[in-house]
Amino acid sequence: MNFRLIPVALIVLLTGCSVLQPADSPTQKALTPAITLPLVPSWFNGTIYYYVTTDAWPRELATAMGANHTPRFQDALPPRPKPPELKTVLERVYTFPDGEQISIIPSAPEPIGPASHNQPYSPVWQVVEVHWRVTEQQRELKSEAALLDAAAAGWVEITVTNGVVNCAVVADAEGNRLPGSQLHGVLD
Is the dihedral of CA 41, 56, 108, 183 positive or negative? Predict the structure, then answer.
């Protein structure tokens, strides 16, 4: 073995380590893997927010949403009726299975990203189905408050399901988005 080559090899190795790019350099960004996920629009307090769905339970819901089946999500469901003092990670997502409108969420990160201060926001949602009972009153509902008013008036029926989904809010219609993300396409 030629021991004179060992220092040369060591210098080459150490030089290679010193040229590693910082995580935010253009070279590193070009090498970072990326994935494209469909954005799902929803209403939150009169503004459209977009989320991505990655996980769901039960299997039928995961299949319908093209998400990971996550059996452990059944452990997130609180006893029914849920005692008012019981705090859980679950939020709600109000869906319209008959397709009358996009979903409604009761919270979102404000602002979107690491500076969010919205305590109620959670990306883990229990699916709540909404069906119109009085079609003459049907209109676009743009907040949880408007939905609950419609329910109190008897215009809609709200059904809590056992479905649980992981849907992170990642952008809004005003162009706010997670830091480092790219928004493609036209937002309504």
Answer: negative
